[in-house]
């Protein structure tokens, strides 16, 4: 529990974590995945970001950004961020994935607590369900925005890079 608290403290206070961008890095079978989406305009220019963290060391194992599109909603961008996180976990051959997102809607939909009402989210939700089914163990946790700042930064970075900033 202490490592988890330290990890959250690092993300909320922007402290330095050991970095590893090597996709072939050996990791434990359990990872924390942080995902976020951003939309400027809602709908508008959208991006997403994800990162994997080794829960035993707090090391960032991988980060990824993706520009989603010019007319996407914030919730669609959140789902794209979740897909990105699940794909990173697959690439790192994780078996236990603990997803952390600041979108209560997406977390509750993935947990089956909320229905997916918006037509534009149904396909994205289904794709995420299929990706998550590839893992023996997946959990979805809603976290405060302050505990997801690095994924938020990555999501906005995707839009900024697309805009040429």
UniProtKB/TrEMBL annotation:
Coiled coil: none annotated. Residues 27-160 form the RNase H type-1 domain. One of its GO terms (molecular function) is nucleic acid binding. This is RNase H type-1 domain-containing protein. The lineage of its organism: Eukaryota, Sar, Stramenopiles, Oomycota, Peronosporomycetes.
């Amino acid at each position: 529990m202490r490592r988890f608290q330290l990890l959250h403290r690092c993300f909320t206070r922007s402290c330095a974590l050991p970095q590893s961008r090597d996709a072939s890095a050996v990791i434990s079978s359990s990872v924390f995945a942080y995902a976020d989406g951003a939309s400027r305009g809602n709908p508008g220019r959208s991006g997403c970001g994800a990162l994997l963290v080794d829960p035993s060391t707090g090391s960032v194992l991988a980060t990824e950004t993706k520009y989603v599109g010019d007319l996407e909603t914030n919730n669609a961008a959140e789902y794209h961020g979740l897909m990105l996180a699940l794909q990173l976990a697959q690439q790192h051959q994780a078996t236990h994935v603990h997803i952390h997102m600041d979108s209560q809607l997406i977390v509750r939909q993935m947990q089956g607590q909320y229905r997916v009402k918006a037509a534009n989210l149904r396909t994205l939700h289904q794709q995420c369900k299929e990706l998550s089914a590839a893992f023996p163990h997946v959990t979805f946790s809603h976290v405060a925005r302050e505990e997801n700042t690095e994924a938020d930064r990555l999501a906005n970075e995707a839009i900024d890079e697309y805009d040429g900033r």
